[in-house]
Amino acid sequence: MAPASVSLSWPNPNFLPALRRAPFVVVLAGIENSGIVDAALADPALTESAIPRFEPSCTPPCDALLWRLETASGESLSRPGLLRQYWHRAPYALTVRLVQYQPGSSVPEILDEGTLGTRGRRSAFKTAIDRLAMRFVRDAALGRSRGPAGSAPAATARGRFGWLDAIQATWRERFMSEWWSIGTASVPLDRILTGGGLGDIRWYRTKAAHRYLADPFPWPGTDRILCEEMPLTNGVGRIVAVAGDGNTLSPPEVMLDDGLHHSYPCTLQDKGLVYCIPESTTRGSTRLYRLDGDGRFLPVCDPAPHSRLADPTLFTWNGRYWLGCTDLDLGDHDNLCLLHAPALTGPWTPHARWPVKIDIRGARPAGRLFETGGRLFRPGQDCAATYGAAVAVHEITTLTETDFQESLVTVLRPDKAGPFPHGLHTLVHDGTRFWVDGKRFVFDMAGFRQKLLGRVSRMLSRMGVD
Prior knowledge:
The protein is 16% helix and 38% strand. By secondary structure, it is α+β, with helices and mostly antiparallel strands. The chain has 2 domains: 19-159, 3-Layer(aba) Sandwich (Rossmann fold), CATH 3.40.50; 179-449, Glycosyl hydrolase domain, family 43 (Tachylectin-2, Chain A, 5 Propeller). Strands 1-17-16-15-14 form a 5-stranded mixed sheet, with no helix packed on it. A 5-stranded mixed sheet has the order 3-2-4-5-6, covered by helices on one side. α1 (35-41) packs parallel to α4. It is globular, with a radius of gyration of 23 Å.
């Protein structure tokens, strides 16, 4: 059965025509010229709503309305040495704000706020700052600002020099690979929400081998778990089913393997039927399936036919279907986006604020949402120090088609003395216990040879050698 192709009604500059008004003049400060900044300032979507008077060094008080791009401590993003201070230094996160000052006032009003990761290439860090800053400016002009975030800002950078940390990270990536496995924790939900942690985790498959398991999701109505099976060195992920028996797992049964990468098989039981929406990051390949009794994946619809979505997470709230995800065109790990629909078949519509949250410390989904006492909680990935470093649990306090707010409840970190000390990535409750996955770095000679050959091939290509 071919899936329905559902067209999205993406937000555009005219999506709220009733609120359109004549462009207003605003002084824009706190950021220097760059290709990204110049292109954004010339974008008609911005200039039709606001006329920015670009004065990078302007500080409050100002004789006109002032929008200034700042850090959480009130420093201009264009301050000399800012990149060097934060790049590749703990806590590997920088909070960026768009702050408004009324004419003649020095009282700040936070229009928008997000937290970026600081690891990776330094040039990419600068690009990410400029892109986020100008997204804030454009969204403010169009009335889509997110306001203050529901988490504390990132702390001031500390520790060793960024260049030294970057060198160490580069060599670790060359010699080491990530080894993941799944486990269970039998703790009350209230213990998690009050900061008591997961306690002892029963881990499966602690010994590194050729393939690992990650992203565990219960298969409703069965005793099996759907998860990603991924080669340690090369290849793409596929969806398998396993069953736990004491301290062992049954051999994986392949459920979805079509040559494309698949992971994060998020499940939802609705009206007696079971649905699954695995991650598949090729553009337009995010597909919602129905699982039949024989384990066949029957296509239902494509909620985002023009997007690359990571960790799509299906849930219901207030009589509507929702899909949380990370838009990889905006960033790998730092944004939360939402789609909603009146039925699982669609039509699926993006939230009016896309993304609804920008924070490397918990925006990207990390498992199914859970409800208790009429309150809705969302696990998110903390990817600041490393991919999947920890799970941040948030309470969603506002969720409508136009608004979203959540606040941080607790952060679950890996046991540094346990078999998986380097990451905790997924948190899913099956009604009885939590399923999680954990990460450790392992030496991988085959992976090192492959990376080395790739580097040599790229060098020869740049030199014009076939």
